[in-house]
Amino acid sequence: MDPLEELSTELRSFIAEVPIVRRPHIDFLRRAASTLRSEHTILDVGSGLAPYRELFSHTSYVTCDWDQSIYSPEVPPDIVSSADNIPVEDQSFDAVLCTEVLEHVPAPWEVLNEFHRIIRPGGAVWITVPFAWPLHEQPHDYYRYTQFGLRYLLEKAGFSQVDVKPLSDAFLTLSQLVHDLEWLMGKAEDGYDKYRGLIGDTMRHVSGLIASFSSFDTQWMLPTGYAASAVR
Question: Is the pTM of this model over 0.85?
């Protein structure tokens, strides 16, 4: 049975919107969730619509987002604050989850220092960040991360047992970017939008061909992003 069948319809739909990116996230986060028990508390920082809430339903799951979030979840965040100044006591949580957020903060080292402050000794942080990805949520889009930069920031903040993994191979990354070219081109009142549509259709066809070469990449040097885990 496909492991995704165990997920809710809502989460499966969320994954299906950008499967090349989100399916690896799910695999990473399910492994993270499996390390927690019912007595553990986890803070999802930059939670947005909290799409991964169900993965951590067996824990005490707390959400945090800032007051300028572009998202309007049905359930408001439990904590409204910036990621670098979370109004909780030291060592309040067993784990912190932070997915696709660090590119949106101007001082990510301060955010990681804050995570280190609020996690209990022996607790974990789980992070995903983009590497090859278009601008988004502008103007609050400041960084793209390599595995070495992310490792450096985590270790500088005091974390240990840092493990950073790419989330896709080069062919899947290129496939996703080519698939999205119509959206990336945008539209204009120049009479050429119908041609942009034709280009978009062609690129979506080409993207499937590119993805078919995925198994040949042995180095994974051009991922869409990285997933990292570390221990306080």
Answer: yes
